[in-house]
Amino acid sequence: MSAWTRADGPVLRISELSVRFLVRTSFFSSRPIAAVTDVSLDLAVGETVAVVGESGSGKTTLGRAALRLVEASAGQVIFEGADIAGFRGAELRSFRQRAQAIFQDPFSSLSPYMRVGELVEEPLVIHGPSSRSEREALVLAALEQVKLTPASDFVEKYPHTLSGGQRQRVSIARAMVLRPDYLVADEPVSMIDASSRAEILYLLKDLQAQQELTFLYITHDLASARHFADRIAVMYAGRIVELAPAAQLIEAARHPYAKALLAAVPGPDPANRLRQRPVVGGEPPDAGALPSGCAFHPRCPVAIRGTCETIVPPLIALADGYQVACHLYPADSSEGASDGAADEAGASDGAASMTSSAASRPGSSASG
Ligand SMILES: Nc1ncnc2c1ncn2[C@@H]1O[C@H](COP(=O)(O)OP(=O)(O)OP(=O)(O)O)[C@@H](O)[C@H]1O
Ligand code: SF4
Ligand SMILES: [Mg+2]
User: Fold this and answer.
1) Which of 178, 207, 177, 240 is nearest to 48 (CA)?
2) Which of 57, 165, 294, 302 reaches 20 to 30 Å from 336, CA-CA?
3) 320 Cβ contact list (under 8 Å, min separation 6)
4) Pocket residue to mutate for ligand 1, from 60, 186, 221, 240, most atoms within 8 A of Cβ
5) Residues 343, 255: Cα–Cα separation, whole Å
């Protein structure tokens, strides 16, 4: 790795990143899928950035590209000053050790034939100390760290004897045992019973604070993003459409799509959970045939005819660390010329009735 220091800037810099998949449609033809388009995002040391958006918006692909688990079609992912696409040999091994992932499904990500102790030891066999006793000590410490105690009881167990929450703790122990600097957690609690979700998220937050982890947290759940992230990036059709400090974005989202996602989140009052919520109608677009201009325009209640369907709005910086990609906020204004119009979006009566599976999910899920 390069001789990067904190003074050099963000630990992770995603720069104009695009990811395209080629999907075969018949024996002779295939079509490109625009999973991620022109995403730029910096993560400071110890920062948590949540990535939210509907199903298919490109969150997982972005997270995987940021770990070099899928190849970028354009743009770069710079880790500590070096392009991860160029890592080979020892550099790549070091990156694989220092950048870890936690995936959604603790059922499929753990081999049912391995005991917990072996599962947590496995990454150490590849990247850790050669001495067995040292590895065992690290495994026990990692299990204690994720509150699977007494650790000596858990090392002998098989994953199928554990609850979903305990299994996800094993996945976290596997990721943390290498003491990474950077973690991508892709919907880490969405497949766990509701009673364990907050505990797991608090655990991740604690571990992050202890180890000053830089954390990319992919989620459908805006409420947890608000609680656990420093900033939130809202993705739509593969692009970041809004990026802002978490609390401010929840209080005063600018982009009509971000407003619509927020409008779908039930408030804390239990009576509100049954209330019908206004959500922009229509389905998320097909990543193989995205609408022209702003990809949100067919669903946007405040689209500007003649502009939104033809011109892709660039992500521009507003005041207070906000970035937004919407023609309501022209590049030459600091706060947007049409805030009144923008305020209509998301809560508009003109918005079609709820069709998003995301919006109908119980809890504070923002999308399906
Ligand atoms: N390996 C792949 N091959 C082809 N298309 C893919 C592949 N992975 C993802 N896609 C497509 O890329 C787009 C973005 O998918 P992605 O999984 O990144 O979205 P997501 O926001 O994580 O969705 P979800 O919330 O459902 O997990 C989708 O249209 C998806 O079908
Ligand atoms: S106003 Fe236009 S640019 Fe802004 S979200 Fe709606 S369609 Fe997109
Ligand atoms: Mg995903």
Assistant:
1) 207
2) 57
3) 244, 245, 248
4) 60
5) 9
Report, as an integer, the average pLDDT of 98-112.
Answer: 88
Q: How far apart are CA 355 and CA 261, in angstroms?
A: 12
- Check if 293 has its Cβ closer than 6 Å to any atom of ligand 2: no
Sheet (strand 239-245) strand order: 99-102, 182-186, 214-218, 48-52, 231-236, 239-245, 323-324, 316-317
The Å distance, Cα 8 to ligand 1 centre, comes to 33
Do 186 and 171 touch, CB atoms closer than 8 A?
no
Which tokens belong to 365?
A: 């899920």
**Tokens at 42, concatenated:** 């910096």
Backbone angles phi, psi at 89, to 5 degrees: 50, -125
Residue nearest to atom 27 of ligand 1 (CA): 55
351, pLDDT greater than 50:
no
Q: Which of 58-72, 262-276, 288-302, 339-353 has the lowest mean pLDDT?
A: 339-353
| Tokens encoding 230 | 């420093």
User: Atom of ligand 2 at shortest distance to CA of 313?
Assistant: 3
pTM: 0.88
215 compared with 109, residue with greater pLDDT = 215
The 10 Å Cβ neighbour count of residue 247 is 14
Please state the rounded mean pLDDT for residues 51-80: 96
